[in-house]
Design goal:
Elements lengths: L2 H13 L34 H4 L10 E3 L24 E6 L5 E6 L14 E6 L4 E4 L22 E2 L5 E5 L13 E5 L6 E3 L9 E6 L6 E5 L14 E6 L4 E4 L13 E6 L5 E6 L13 E6 L5 E3 L12 E6 L6 E5 L14 E6 L2 E4 L13 E6 L5 E6 L14 E6 L5 E3 L13 E6 L5 E6 L14 E6 H6 L3 H6 L4
Antiparallel strand pairs: 1-28, 2-3, 3-4, 4-5, 6-7, 7-8, 8-9, 10-11, 11-12, 12-13, 14-15, 15-16, 16-17, 18-19, 19-20, 20-21, 22-23, 23-24, 24-25, 26-27, 27-28
Length: 489
C-alpha cells in the first residue's frame, strides 16, 4: 500500500472519526485528504422545527446538560470563523473524567472565559461540580496564544480524575516550542503546571493523547524520529509519557527498521494504565499477513501483543480503527468496515465490535438484536467493560428514529439495554447530527457534541455544543417492558 493511499485512509477512518458531521463509511479515494473536520462546509439552511422532529416519550427533567458554556451559564457565541458562519463548528470533541465531574472540549467561542481575544480554537475545561469553565490551552503564566483557523488542531483530548488535561495543539504553549506542528501537552486545571510530552522533537507532529484516570501516564502517536534514542523507524509510533518523571518510551518498536514506513495510530490506554490499544498497518503478529489497518492490544509490562480485530483463524476483509479498552485489557471496543468478523454481519457498513477473551461480538445492534441498516463508529467503553457508547447513522437501532441523521447511543453490554442519548425535552429527536461520544470510566456519564438546536431549552447560538447525559437518566427512559423486550446481545 502506498503512503499516499494509507494516509488518505488515515484521515477518513482515524483522524476524522468522531467528527459529528462525518459518517466514515468508506476510506477517501486515493490521493485525497478528507478535510471536513478542519473546514466544514458552510451551512446556512435553517434546522427543522421542533414539530418536525418530535417523537417518543418525554425524558426525565434535566435529561441533558449543556457544558460548553461560560461559568455564568452564558452559551457559547459564534466566533473564530475567518471563512464565514458554519453550524458544524462551535464547541466539540469532548473528553470526560472518571466520574464525569470534568469535561474538556475544543471551542471557537470567545465568550467562555474573560479575555479571550485570540480568535482561535482553544481548549476549555468545565467543572460540573462547581459550574466553572476555564481555558487550559494557555501558556504557563496564563497568557493566550495567537493563531489562525488554519493552525487549529482538532485532535482528541483526555481528562484525568483531578481535572488534569492532555491535549494536542499547534499552539506554542511552551516557550521552547518554536514550531507550528502539533505537540502533546499535559496541563493542570489551575494552571500550576504545563508539560510538553512530545519534547524535544521539531520534525513531526504528535497527537492523539490518551491518559489514565490518575493522570500519571499519557500515550500518544508521533512520526518524529528524535523523541527517543535509537529510533530507526521512519513511520509513526506510539509513545508512553510519565508527567511526574518526564520519562518517555516507545511502545511500538522504534528500534526496528524492519517495520519501515508503517503507522501506529490513535492509541488508547486503559484507565489503570496496564494496557494500550492502537490501530496500525504493520504486521505485528505472525498471522497478520495483509495490509489492512488492524487493532492491536499491548500489555505494557510484558510487551505482549495481540491482534483483536480479525476473525478466528483468518484475516478481516476491511479496515479496523478507533479503539477503546477497559481495565486489565479484558474488553477492547473498535470500529470496523469488515463484514467477516461475525457470521451475520450483512449490512456492508461500519459497525462497532467488542473483543474479549470469549471472542468477538458485533455490539451496535438494534434493540431486537439485528444488524442495523447503517454505520456505527467511535466507541467508548467503561472501565469494567459493561457500558458502551457510540455514534450511528442507522435509523433502526431504536424505535421511532426518524431524524435521518447521526445519533449517540449508550448500550448495556450485560443486559442488552440500548438508549439514544441525543434527544431533547419532550422526547424530541435532535434536529441535526450528534457524535463524538465519550463515556466516563465509571460508566455513569456520557458526553457528546451536537449541531442540534433542540436538545436543551435556550440553545440559540446555531453551532455545535457539548452535552452531558447520565446513564441513570438514559436507561430511566426505558420502561420495564421495553427492557424486557431487549435481548442480551
Amino acid at each position: 500500500m502506498t503512503d499516499v493511499l494509507l494516509l488518505s485512509v488515515w484521515f477518513q477512518l482515524v483522524a476524522c472519526d468522531g467528527c459529528s458531521s462525518q459518517d466514515p463509511t468508506r476510506p477517501a479515494a486515493s490521493g485525497t485528504e478528507d478535510t471536513s473536520s478542519a473546514t466544514p462546509d458552510r451551512d446556512t439552511d435553517p434546522p427543522p422545527t421542533d414539530e418536525e422532529t418530535d417523537s417518543g416519550e418525554p425524558p426525565p427533567e434535566g435529561f441533558l446538560e449543556r457544558v460548553s458554556v461560560a461559568s455564568d451559564g452564558q452559551q457559547a457565541n459564534v466566533a473564530g470563523y475567518e471563512s464565514g458562519y458554519s453550524r458544524s463548528q462551535g464547541s466539540f470533541q469532548p473528553a470526560i473524567s472518571e466520574t464525569g465531574r470534568y469535561v474538556a472540549f475544543r471551542s471557537f467561542a470567545s465568550n467562555l472565559v474573560a479575555g479571550d481575544a485570540n480568535d482561535f480554537l482553544d481548549v476549555f475545561l468545565h467543572d460540573r461540580e462547581k459550574g466553572v469553565t476555564t481555558r487550559v490551552s494557555v501558556t504557563s503564566d496564563g497568557a493566550e496564544v495567537a493563531g489562525t483557523s488554519q493552525d487549529a488542531s482538532e485532535g482528541v483530548l483526555a481528562v484525568a480524575r483531578s481535572g488534569r488535561v492532555a491535549l494536542s495543539t499547534k499552539q506554542a504553549l511552551a516557550t521552547r516550542d518554536g514550531d507550528t506542528l502539533d505537540d502533546v501537552y499535559v496541563v493542570e486545571p489551575d494552571g500550576s503546571a504545563l508539560l510538553q510530552a512530545s519534547w524535544p522533537s521539531a520534525s513531526e507532529s504528535a497527537t492523539w493523547p490518551s491518559m489514565t484516570t490518575e493522570g500519571d501516564v499519557v500515550v500518544f502517536a508521533s512520526g518524529a524520529h528524535d523523541l527517543v534514542a535509537g529510533d530507526q523507524h521512519s513511520g509513526v509510533d506510539v509513545y508512553r509519557y510519565e508527567p511526574a518523571t518526564g520519562a518517555l518510551t516507545c511502545l511500538t518498536g522504534c528500534e526496528q527498521p524492519t517495520q519501515d514506513s508503517t503507522y501506529a495510530m490513535r492509541p488508547a490506554i486503559s484507565p489503570d494504565g496496564g494496557w494500550v490499544c492502537f490501530t496500525t498497518d504493520a504486521t505485528l503478529a505472525q498471522e497478520d499477513t495483509d495490509e489492512q489497518l488492524d487493532v492491536y492490544l499491548l500489555e505494557v509490562a510484558t510487551g505482549a501483543l495481540q491482534r483483536v480485530s480479525a476473525p478466528s483463524g483468518g484475516e478481516a476483509d476491511d479496515h479496523a480503527y478507533r479503539c477503546a479498552l477497559s481495565n486489565d485489557g479484558e474488553h477492547v471496543a473498535f470500529s470496523s468496515h469488515a463484514n467477516n468478523l461475525v457470521d451475520d454481519d450483512t449490512n456492508d457498513s461500519a459497525d462497532v465490535f467488542v473483543w474479549s477473551k470469549d471472542g468477538l461480538r458485533l455490539a451496535s445492534r438494534t434493540t431486537a438484536g439485528e444488524v442495523p441498516e447503517g454505520s456505527s463508529w467511535g466507541p467508548s467503553i467503561s472501565a469494567d467493560g459493561r457500558y458502551l457508547a457510540f455514534t450511528s447513522s442507522a435509523n433502526d437501532l431504536v424505535p421511532e428514529d426518524t431524524n435521518g441523521t447521526h445519533d449517540v447511543f449508550l448500550l448495556d453490554l450485560d443486559e442488552g439495554a440500548l438508549a439514544r442519548a441525543s434527544v431533547g425535552p419532550g422526547g424530541q429527536e435532535g434536529n441535526r447530527a450528534s457524535g463524538a461520544a465519550v463515556l466516563s470510566a465509571d460508566g455513569t456519564t456520557l458526553a457528546f457534541d451536537s449541531e442540534a438546536s433542540n436538545l436543551v431549552e435556550g440553545d440559540s447560538n446555531g453551532v455545535r455544543d457539548v452535552f452531558v447525559a447520565s446513564r441513570e437518566a438514559l436507561f430511566g427512559q426505558l420502561s420495564a417492558d421495553d427492557q424486557a423486550d431487549q435481548p442480551s446481545q
